[in-house]
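This section describes the prediction task in plain terms. A model, or a person checking by hand, is given the sequence of a single protein chain and must write out its three-dimensional structure as a string of tokens. No templates, partner chains or ligands are provided. The sample shown here is typical of the held-out split.
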Amino acid sequence: MAPHEHHSVEIIRDAKWAVRVTAYGNTLTFPFAAEEYARSYADGQAFRLGVQVIELKKTA
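The expected answer:
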């Protein structure tokens, strides 16, 4: 399956960790208390969608 141009997986570091997954026109954000869980989830979703994980760091 070729990656869809509108798929993306972003890992966001703010006060906590979050993973934002965009697939098939839908975007969902999943909060995580621990970095390891966020990275593991992001890696799995990126593999499923055939994309790279993008890391974002929010600033105050």
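For orientation: Residues 35-49 form the longest helix (15 residues).
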